[in-house]
Amino acid sequence: MATIKDVSKLAGVSVATVSRYLNKNGYVSKDAADTIAAVIEKLNYRPNTIARSLAGMKTATVGLMVPDILNPFFPELARAIEDAANDYGYTVMLCNTDNDSIKEQKYIDTLLHKQIDGIIISSYTIKPEHLTQLQKNSIPVVLMDNVFSSDSVVSLTVENRRGGELAVEHLLTQGCSKIAHICGPLSITSSRERTNGYENASRGTDWFSPSLIGYSDFTVKGGYTAMRELLALHPNLDGVFASNDLMAAGALRALQEAGKNVPRDVKVIGFDGIGLEMMTPELSTIAQPIYELGKTAMDSLIGLIRQETDIVTDQTFPVTLVAKQSTMTHN
Ligand code: RIB
User: Fold this and answer.
1) In CATH, which of 3.40.50.2300, 3.40.1390.10, 3.40.50.720, 3.50.50.60 is domain 160-288?
2) Angle, to 10 degrees, between the axis of helix 15-23 and the axis of helix 30-43?
3) Hey, which of 71, 272, 286, 290 would you mutate to test ligand 1's pocket, going by the most ligand atoms within 8 Å of its Cβ?
């Protein structure tokens, strides 16, 4: 089997240059890169990733931890991360944690064992000690939807609070006069901020009451249950802002079962923009730039892995109102 030394010898460059080429890390001239690529092809050279990682080199593998792969938000995010990883010559190991902190810890241990170069974490249950454990092992981290101040952790969020305000402002413009809210897991910054946005825009109105807030978990079932409870407390509510699209879908079902027409009797808006086109009525939402978030996550992780100095550690992305049938005004 050909070795890195064979490649270096035949290409007429140093082993260090071949190594920089393989790791996509550091300068290699275009001529040298072309020659190395041709020699690798000719010798059918396959870098031994285990030996390379034992030698302290990169494995070109990153972990991606998501809480619920069945939520369309996460496949779209994973797609963007995978596309970008592919451009960098990296492979992504997907870990679905089911919101289970024990499963999360097990995955972190496994990924460390496999010598990943970095990790992107989207989680409702991540604990500071998990992040500290990764930091102790010098594993760069990109954290989605949560903020953890540190030089080796990049946090990516969207304008969650503004999104919550926008949702309520839109429902008010569409004629709603009693708006309920279904909030997501309070353990994550993004979810709390969306609820803060709802409260900012509602508090001070003559209809607001804290009992208009239902507590839930970002699932369809959770949204359905919360909506039933809210309807029992406030049968005359006429608007609902759910903190993600799946909960909005559950709320819609509960409203329809209760004989409410959406949007005539109650208007509903979600958050995420996962494009649930099959729903009737089509769902209005506060859309996140999901693909851009995923690509930025991977770009930032590569920057951390390469120890670049110009990394922005806290980044916030804009959200946009996408008005569809579920909040349309009927004359
Ligand atoms: O729907 C999934 C939610 O989890 C999204 O809103 C995303 O921001 C993440 O926190």
Assistant:
1) 3.40.50.2300
2) 90
3) 272
Check if the beta carbon of residue 120 is closer than 8 Å to that of residue 81: yes
Q: Could you read off the pLDDT of 243-261 as tens digits, one per residue?
A: 999 999 999 999 999 999 9
- Among 71, 187, 290, which is best to mutate for testing ligand 1, by the most ligand atoms less than 8 A from CB? 71
Q: Which CATH number fits domain 4-47: 1.10.260.40, 2.170.150.70, 3.10.20.30, 1.20.1600.10?
A: 1.10.260.40
What's the pLDDT at 306? 87
Question: Distance between CA atoms of 38 and 31, rounded to whole angstroms?
Answer: 11
State which residues of the chain have pLDDT below 50: none
| Ligand 1, pocket residues at CB < 6 Å | 71, 73, 145, 188, 190, 218, 244, 246, 271-272
Output the average pLDDT for the chain: 91
Tell me the pLDDT tens digit for each residue of 32-68: 999 999 999 899 887 766 555 555 557 889 999 999 9
Strand-strand pairing, 284-287 and 320-322: antiparallel
Distance 324 CA to ligand 1 centre (A): 20
